[in-house]
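Entry details:
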Amino acid sequence: MLSRILAAEGHQVSAATTGSAALRLVESCEPDLILLDVMMPGMDGYQVCATLKANPQFQNIPVIFITGLNDADEEARGLELGAVDYIVKPFNEMIVRLRVRTHLELKRQRDILSRLSHFDGLTSIPNRRAFDERLVQEWKRACRAHDNLVVAMIDIDYFKQYNDTYGHLAGDDCLRRVAGALAKQMQRGSDFVARYGGEEFVCLFSGINQAGLVTMTEQLRVSIAVQQIPHSTSSVARYVTISIGAAFCQPSLDTSAFDLMAHADAQLFTAKHLGRNRVSLALL
C-alpha cells in the first residue's frame, strides 16, 4: 500500500520485506528516504535503523518509522535511534504523503548545504574539508583493495609577489585559472583536486603506477605553464608556474593517510628548495 501511494506521487520506490533485505537494498540504491516498519521477521526495524546510523555512508538518510506500536516509549525509542518521524498504523494516506514530501525537501536542502560546505567559494573546486574526508575514504578503500594511492601537494610559485605586483583581484583570477587548469587534468572518476588553502592545491590519485605518477605530475606542472599567465616578478619564469611535491604508497593498516600527506609536503619543500617550477617525488 505504501509503495502504491508513494509511486502515485511520482517517487521511485524500492521495497523489502525483511530487515536484512532492507539493508541490502539500501546498499544497492542509496535512497533519499526510508520508511521502516518495526515488526519484521528476523532483524526488527530498530536493529535496521541502528545499523544504518552506525554506517557513515548511510547515517544521514532520514528514516520514518511506520508501525502498529502505538506507544510513547516505542516512539521515543525510534526517535532516539535517529529516526526523523514516527507514524502509527493504520495511517492516513494524506498524512504520509505530506510527511514524506516534507522530509524529502529537508533532505534536499541539507544536501545542498553539505555540497556548498565542501566547495571553495573562489575557485569552485572542492575545499580542504572535502579533501580531508576524501583522503580518509580512499585510504580505507585502498587498504581493502591493496591499491596504490598518491597525494600531490601544489604551490603557486612566488604568489605573494604576484599579488603585490598585480593586485588581489588579479590574484583571485589567477587562483581561478590555476584551479580550472588542474581540474581539467582530473580525467578519471577517482582523480580528485581541491584547494588546500591560500595558493596551495592538492590532488589525490589512486590506481596508478610509478611511471603513471611521473607522467601525471608533469602534466599538472605543464598545464599551468602553458596558460602563460604573466608574472614579471617571478624568479623562475616570466609567467605563473607551480611546484609539486608528491608521495606514492600502498596504504596499510600499519600506516596513516596523514603520513602520506607529510611526505608529500616534504617533497613540495624539496621542489621549492631546488628552484621551483618542478616536481619532486617520494616512493614509500
Observations:
- The mean pLDDT is 92.
